[in-house]
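Dear U.,

For the methods section draft, I wanted the exact inputs and outputs in one place so we can describe them consistently. I've listed the two proteins in the order they'll appear in the manuscript figures. Please don't edit the token lines directly; just add comments below if something needs changing.

First protein:
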Amino acid sequence: MAQMDIVTKRIYQEAAKRDGHRVLVDRLWPRGISKDDARLDDWCKELAPSDDLRKWFDHDADKFDAFAKKYKKELKDCEDKLDELVNIAKEKRVTLLYGAKDEEHNQAVVLKEVLCDRG
């Protein structure tokens, strides 16, 4: 089985060649980032948490476990897109980009886990 290469990174960090396939996984475009600076290969709004879930979570680390459970449930509706990213990650690095300041408690961390479980 092919090994997958998936990493997470804040969109505010400089784009690098080693990022491979750069995918924004936020529903909203990050403030202060131009389309050119983002250097995206894909913007997967459909893989971002719903507006209701995002607003409920509000980047509260104490709610992260509950958020992760609810978000994983939402991702069940995105099987095709998840499979597409898994297949890309078997060929080259996939970098999941997010705007949140908290590098441990955000949707990209949960999404990476879901993708790794699928692969």
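Second protein (the one for the lower panel):
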Amino acid sequence: MTADHGAGDVSVDLLTQTYRDHYSSLLKLAALLLDDAASCEDVVQEAFIRVHSARTRVREPEKLLAYLRQTVVNLSRSTLRRRLIGLRLAPKPMPDMASAEEGAYELLEKDALIQALRGIQRRQREVLVLRYFADLTEAQVATLLGISIGSVKAYGSRGIEALRVRMEAFR
């Protein structure tokens, strides 16, 4: 059953196949930008829902995966923004007591590379994840993040250096 709406539109079949082929890689992309599995799954599911709703506006089916990646990045940013607002409004824990949330995050953050990635600037992390995990070109990263290729190179270079320093600190 194909739900084509016009020449070039993304069909439900293509979206379903893209889901099967790329769900795992999009989940890993979200995991490098966020810090818990449930949020990652929520972000990726929401990305597919949004792309499904907007599929008649995606005129070039070969760009579907890029559109999904951008949606995952944008939704990850929104998730982090909401958390920051929530943390600002939440009552502060007693200074001598670690919160339950901190303990849960410590269990999730066992991998040194992921810890190091989380410690660098957001834009540097996004560039490194998209360049080296998602294997995008500098031009694709620039388009996805809405920045220049020169900025991608600068954030990438600074991010690699920051990551190197943080990885050495873990050793």
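Candidate sentences for the figure legend, describing the second protein: The chain has two domains: 1-91, 109-171. The domain at 109-171 is CATH 1.10.10.10 (Arc Repressor Mutant, subunit A).

Thanks,
Y.
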